[in-house]
Amino acid sequence: MKITDSSPSSGDNQHGMTLLEIMLALLILSTVVTMVSISLSGSLNVLNATQQQGEIYHRAQVALQRISEDLASAVLVEDVDFIGSAEQLDGEDADTLQFTSTAHVVFNRQQDNPGIAVLSYKVEEDPGSQGGLVLIRSDELLATSAVTNGGQDAEGGFLLCDGLRSVQFRYFDESGEETDTWSTSEDALSSQDERKLPVAVSCTLEFWLDRENDSSIEFSTGVLLPVGLINAQSLRQNATP
Predict the structure, then answer these.
(1) What pTM did the predictor assign?
(2) Is residue 139 part of a domain?
């Protein structure tokens, strides 16, 4: 008796992918690629934002530390006035400040010496950034400075900080009252006022984060002026009966 195998051979079940199956595979593949791209894009954006904020924190720390050291070493001399002015650029605070200080920065000890210097801070528009501001620091020894009585700005200077939206200085007297300007010039003082330094100065630097979304971040510091504090204590003692 002969038995015949009528079951289909394995070769009969093999067939190619249909067009529908190919399209479905491509759809799944494109969906996976899109999800991965979105995830990577979000991660890169977060990484870039974190890096940008890290750079801003570093610039703010360096600038505020320099300003703090300059103000903490402020002195009042006869020929140069302490002048803090409230200014604006493009509707933003762009305050300026000039004073004498012993915090002269010596870059070359063979050609320069420490001593009392005329320091000034001024804000200018950043030519390489629309809507951005830069903070310029000038530093000239009093003996060689072109600044004369009346408080003209010292020439030159170097870039202390960029990427700014605004710069603001505030001044405090011996009673703790705050003002946005300070001047020891004769034109600004009455006959009864004494020529003196503020007891403290606060500085606020505001940096741009995203101009399109009007996003920014502020850093502030307050500095006690020892000379101004000593002068205030002397005034209180003299006023005590």
Answers:
(1) 0.74
(2) yes
Query: 44, 114, 33, 82: which is closest to 199 by C-alpha?
Result: 82
Q: How many domains does the chain have?
A: 1
Query: How many Cβ atoms are within 10 Å of 114's Cβ, its own excluded?
Result: 12
Asked whether the beta carbons of 93 and 166 are under 8 A apart, the reply is yes
**7 strand-pairing partners:** none
Is 31 part of any domain? no
Asked whether the beta carbons of 161 and 135 are under 8 A apart, the reply is yes
Range of the domain at 112: 47-239
Residues 6+ apart with CB under 8 A from 14: none
Please report where in the chains the tokens 């991965």 appear, as a residue: 36
Helices of type H across the chain: 19-72, 226-239
State pLDDT tens for residues 33-43: 777 777 666 66
Q: Where are the beta strands (DSSP E) in 76-224?
A: 83-85, 88-89, 92-93, 96-101, 117-125, 133-141, 158-172, 178-179, 182-183, 200-210, 215-224
What region does 150 belong to: left with phi over 0, alpha with psi -120 to 50, or beta? left
In a domain, 168, yes or no: yes
In a domain, 40, yes or no: no
> What local confidence, expressed as pLDDT, does residue 67 receive?
97
Cα–Cα distances in angstroms (integers) from residue 80 to residues 59, 76, 145, 198, in the given order:
30, 8, 10, 15
* pLDDT tens per residue, range 69-111: 999 999 999 889 999 999 999 899 999 999 999 999 887 777 7
